[in-house]
User: What shape does this take?
Amino acid sequence: MRDMSGVGSGRIRISVPARLAYRDAVGALVHSVCIQLEQQRKARSGTADEVLSAFNEAFNNLVKHGWKGREPGGADIEVELLPGKIVLRLMDLGAGFDPDHISAPDLSGVGSDVSEGGYGLFIMRSFMSEVQYQRGDGDQANVLTLVRNLDQDHGDVH
Amino acid sequence: MLTFTKEVRGNVLVLSLKGNLDAITVPELKPEIDNIVSERKTAVVVDLSGLTLIDSSGVGAIVSLFKRVRALSGDVKVAGVTAQPKEIFRLLRLDRAFDIHPTIEEAVAKFPR
Assistant: This one.
C-alpha cells in the first residue's frame, strides 16, 4: 500500500466478507478519500456522495446477486488514486453478473407506473465515468471496476 | 442506521425517516409500510429531511409505499429531500414522479381537509 496522505496517489486494498454489514465500513473509506479530494479542490463538491452512491450499489449487487442462495465468501475492494481519477475495484468469486445484459430502467413512469427497481446499475453508470466488468473463471475473481474522472460533471448518463 | 417516527396531523399520516434508507435498513421499514397499507392510510407524507443517504433499495421502498397507497385511491407526498437523497431523486427523475415539497407543513397542506 502506498501513501495516500495528502491524497496524491496510492492504493488501498481491503478484504471483507461479502455481507451487507461490511459495506458501510468500506464505504466510509471511499467517502473519506473523496472528501479529501474535494477539500483539496481536486474534485468538485458532491463527488464524495456520488462515488459513495455508486460504490454502495456495486457492493449491494455483489452481495445480493453474487452469493444468492450460497454462504457468502469474501470480497476484495481496491481504492486507487491515479492522476485525475479515482478507481474502485470490487473483486469476488461469486456468481457474478454481466452489466452489459442489464437494460436501463424506464425513467418516464409517473404515478403508478414508476418502477420500484432496476436503478442500481443506472446509478453506477451515471455517477461514474466508466463501469467495466470482467467475469472470473475458476479461481480467477470477477472484477467490477468503477472509474471516476475527477473533472466529470455530475449525473452524466453513460 | 435508520430511525422512523409516525405522527398524525389532521387526516394526514406523517412518516419521518432519519439516517440511511438502503439495502441494509429497508427490511426494518417494510413492516411499517405494510402497517400503513393495512390500516388503509390514504393521505401520507414521507418526511425525508433527516435522511442522509438513500440507495436503489431505499428508493424501491418509497416507490412501493407510493404505489400501494395509490392503489387505495390515496396519495403520498414527499417533504424535505436534501443532499444525497435529492441528487438520487433528481437522477432517477423521481422529482417529477412524486409530489415533493420543501417542508412537512407544505406537503400536509396539499391534502384536502
